[in-house]
Amino acid sequence: MAEYYFDMETSGFNFDTDEIWTIQWQRLNGFTGEPIGDLNILKRWESSEEEIIKTFLPNLRCKPFDFIFVGKNLLFDFCLLNQRMKNFSLGEIDLRCLYGRASLDIKPILVIMNNGSFIGYDKVLPKTIPLTNDKIPQLLVEKKYDEVIQYIKDEANDFTKVYQVFKREMPSLTKHLLT
What we know:
This protein has helices at about 50-60, 75-85, 95-100, 105-115, 135-140, 145-170, 175; strands at about 5-10, 20-30, 35-45, 70, 105. The protein is an alpha/beta fold. The protein has one domain: Nucleotidyltransferase, domain 5, CATH 3.30.420. The protein has a five-stranded mixed β-sheet with strand order 3-2-1-4-5, sandwiched between helices. β2 and β3 form a beta hairpin. It is globular.
């Protein structure tokens, strides 16, 4: 099974009006969660939103275990990606396919770690830099692409560190369930 860290940077959080600026993914070791190879970043400012979506589409249409999405709040990414695909007449994501597709979203784990609260759950993830994703749309407007790329790299690194801890530590929780 091929696990891939997956994320996108967008112009905002509205499915109907906001756009995708980057799509990024990186292969992960299925046992340890460690990154394998380079972080792939498709950048709208180097081509177009439609082109980066077209480039990424084969990963959505492959067999379910050939590209296992691993991320935080994947439903948002899938919904926005689906809306933008429809906008460019590139088809749409079959939600039944997503249901049957293997994916790992750490959002529920973070909520539980945050005492069950959705408010501030993302602050459970340690951050390399203080920049938050709500600042990315402004950086994109200001064409500060180097800062956006650095944010993406830091975020991917922070995510994979936490994911490695989950992979290493969570299996031991089963002892509490099987007694």
